[in-house]
Amino acid sequence: MIPILLKSILCSGILLGIYHVFLSNEKLLKFNRWYLIFSIVFSYTIPWISNPWNQEVIDTQPVLIIGNPTLQTVKANISQNWILENVSNIILVIYLVVTVFLLLKAIILLTKISQIKGKRFVYDNATICLNNDIKGSFSFWNTIYLNQTNWENGKIDERIILHEKAHLQQKHSWDILFVELVKIISWFNPFVFAYKKAIINNHEFLADNFVLHKTPQIQSYQHLILNEIENNLQLTHSFNFNNTKKRFIMMTTAKTKWTYAKQFAIVPVITLLFMGFSQQTKAQEKQKTKPKSTTKTMVDGKKNSLSKQLIKNNTSVVKKKTEKTAETENIIKEEVLQKLDTVNVKMVVDYDLSDNFKEYSMEIRKKLSSNFNTSAIEPLEKGIFKANLSFVLDTKGNITFIKVDGTNESFNNEAKKSLLKLTENGSLQPITKNGIPINYRFSMPITIQFD
Question: Which residues, at least 6 apart from 189, have a Cβ–Cβ distance to it below 8 Å?
Answer without folding.
Answer: 8, 9, 12
